[in-house]
Design a protein that fits this description.
GO terms for molecular function: ATP binding; ATP hydrolysis activity; ATPase-coupled transmembrane transporter activity. The protein is of the alpha/beta class. The chain contains 8 helices and 9 strands. The protein has a single domain, classed as Rossmann fold. A 6-stranded mixed sheet has the order 5-6-7-3-8-9, with helices on both faces. Helix 7 links the parallel strand 6 and strand 7. The longest helix has 15 residues. The chain is globular, with a radius of gyration of 18 Å. The two termini are 31 Å apart. The relative contact order is 0.25. Bound molecules: adenosine-5'-triphosphate and magnesium ion. Adenosine-5'-triphosphate binds next to helix 3.
């Protein structure tokens, strides 16, 4: 996979190759063999986040910028986000503040257990009992032609989520079954034609254009399974695409392909990645924050 916007991904790969070639176990993996450790969550859980054809049981995010919103405003604003589930003795997120603008890739890195995935869960709407404000721009306000945005507020329907281990959540047997799942089961009659309209550009962005759509998901490498998981989300045209540890367990060519994909994705959806891996991802990130132990986020 390549494309016009892959230059910084390739440069980042070159910069990091010398640092990691002799030290990283990724270097010994065959191309596109991501392995289960780096796989991303697929359709099923993401559909809980409000995919086409489903009804989300979760409360919406706090606010949206509404009709007056436009490209240039933050697509995601987080203010004073503190989160302590009943099962935790201390807050897992501690006064988190950050903004993400359209057309940008944000990277949050930090040590294991610092709260990165917890933050993603809150942003995706899976955890709702938090203090502070999470403000999401509706997809419609980005002018990307999305029909998800309803009214003036952004909701979890405007968020795409790709967690780890997609093969655990795939619901189809083939690529096409996976991509079309929510659309096929939609009660909206326009859904099928809308799906067809969106499919070709999404396949292009995710590097799946040349892949037979009747290919079984189990026959795909970890890297290609991630592409399918991302494509499922992009079909929904989210305002923000959230990815948890997208490079874990991947070899360098697969990471480069992923970075190219994300650079294309950001043209229509802002991207927020949480990861241990700063080698490659910092090369394509427009904004970088560090999550410190205790759920404290600082801009770097
Ligand atoms: N529901 C919960 N109740 C209590 N503690 C929790 C809960 N969920 C997560 N934790 C704890 O919160 C901390 C942050 O977890 P989280 O999974 O967000 O970290 P992370 O930064 O994503 O780590 P990793 O890099 O290993 O994925 C951990 O110590 C975890 O054990
Ligand atoms: Mg995590």
């Amino acid at each position: 996979m390549g494309g016009p916007s892959c230059r910084s991904a390739r440069n980042a790969l070159r910069r990091s190759a010398s640092r990691t070639a002799t030290t990283s176990p990724r270097g010994s993996l065959p191309p596109e063999r991501g392995g289960s450790g780096g796989a991303l969550m697929g359709a099923a859980m993401a559909r809980k986040a409000g995919a086409v054809g489903s009804s989300s049981p979760r409360r919406g995010l706090a606010l949206g910028s509404g009709r007056g919103a436009c490209v240039g405003a933050s697509v995601l604003e987080v203010r004073g986000l503190t989160y302590r589930p009943a099962s935790a003795e201390k807050p897992l997120l501690n006064g988190v503040n950050f903004d993400l603008s359209p057309g940008r890739i944000g990277l949050i890195y930090g040590p294991s257990g610092s709260g990165k995935s917890t933050l993603l869960n809150v942003l995706a709407g899976f955890s709702t009992s938090y203090d502070g404000e999470v403000t999401l721009l509706p997809s419609k306000a980005l002018g990307n032609g999305n029909g998800n945005g309803r009214g003036k507020t952004g909701t979890p329907r405007d968020v795409g989520v790709v967690f780890q281990f997609p093969e655990r959540y795939f619901v189809g047997n083939t690529i096409m079954e996976e991509l079309s799942f929510g659309w096929r089961h939609s009660s909206r009659v326009e859904a099928r034609s809308e799906f067809v309209k969106r499919l070709v550009p999404v396949l292009k962005v995710t590097g799946l254009s040349d892949m037979p759509l009747d290919r079984k998901l189990t026959q795909l490498s970890g890297g290609y399974q991630r592409r399918v998981a991302i494509a499922v989300q992009l079909l929904r045209k989210p305002s923000v695409l959230l990815l948890d540890e997208p490079t874990a367990g991947m070899d360098m060519p697969s990471i480069e392909a992923l970075c190219c994909t994300l650079e294309s994705v950001k043209e229509t959806s802002a991207v927020l990645v949480v990861s241990h891996d700063t080698d490659m991802l910092q090369g394509i990130a427009d904004d970088v924050w560090e999550m410190k132990t205790g759920g404290i986020l600082t801009r770097t």
